[in-house]
């Protein structure tokens, strides 16, 4: 049997799964690594950490599955989108990679829109406005602020594509991840030569761009040895983490939406034709499904908001300068569940790292609003979970305004593992929410793409139909839904009420 491996190069660690063509997960493994924040709102990582994490995770998954080197036919790659790996002509990393949640490029976003002829003209070229998280502003930042590094620049890769380079020696990407660079003509599914010219960037800086199930190469002898595989193992294009997660949950046809709650939060819908939000509040990207597109709304601090609360306020000093958690995630969620709907008037604005949908404001800030002496830790946690879910509802509201059908929601990510948070999503969205039989996130989706690339299925749609299953269905509670419908407008007023107080640098 030809087995598949899916690799997801995340922000906190790399995950690898070993899977049969029928979609059965044999083993999963992860390897973590740090993230550096050298200045406020800056976020960087060392690409070498991704590679070491990949090697550890793949070898552990292979061992857990009991597979031999020749048992694996293909690998699918996914990863955090938008990041920038800067390489010189020898393929050496020039400086730490700038990540998706790095907010240093506000001036470069303004420069891009100015060079493009305004936001509307830019959206016409590449379907999206200039956002600080995207790759193109990072390249301009390097040119504007680190000219010595820019002078050495030969190639710019996305995180998963740096791993591809280490696996195969190939410089390649695919259309779903490339859509988030701000340099792809999303409609034509190719690099935008007009925008590159306006930005005075050479097309040679970018890798070749393929469809997600296409084979981009095979393992080099060195990579095969490190991973415990063979040089016959293929590597397919893969997908950015959002599109990969959508494939893994079967969002490959109209009518269904995926909600993903990881560090960030994503609301994702399939589209047979490119559709656009005129104001650019929603992203329009190429889907990992050949010839299809998707729209998504993104919030930057979903599960990250709860992680911040746990790390910053629920730890105590321990030996060796480390900190020890005084409450687990499950404990915090349990306390929230014991708190009334609406957290007795306490609301949380989850803009801890700026915000994308719907505000497009890198300077937005988080807040707890309505605190009283009667509020305890459970209230705060419940307000955080509700605030994150309200922020996701902003995206759902935009989809509905554009006439995009949404009959149900498939929940993925860490937040989907909590029945309480799934119920909250159903109540706030007013939609049925489905848990997934295999919720291994983007790694599962790209393993399916690898199965298509290896010839196990004729198409991604066929692969999803054969393998993707839902389990538990959560229906909205009428009483809770009414309460949230009444509270949502109050949440919506928090941002404009305080926008003028945000620091702008």
Please give a handful of descriptors for the protein shown.
26 strands; 505 residues; seven-stranded mixed β-sheet; 37% helix; alpha/beta; 17 helices
Please give a structural write-up.
By secondary structure, the protein is of the alpha/beta class. A hairpin with a 5-residue loop joins strand 20 (315-317) and strand 21. The model has no long low-confidence stretch (mean pLDDT 94).
Brief sketch in words of this structure:
The chain is an alpha/beta fold and 505 residues long.
- Average pLDDT level: 94
Please tell me how large the radius of gyration is. Answer: 22 Å
Task: Please report the number of helical segments.
Answer: 17
Could you give the distance between the termini? 56 Å
What structural category characterises the helix and strand content?
A: alpha/beta
The helix fraction, in percent, is: 25-40%
Shape: globular
Low-confidence stretches: none
Tally of DSSP β-strands? 26
Biggest sheet, open or closed, and with what strands and sense?
Answer: 7 strands, mixed
Classify the beta-strand content into a percent band. 15-25%
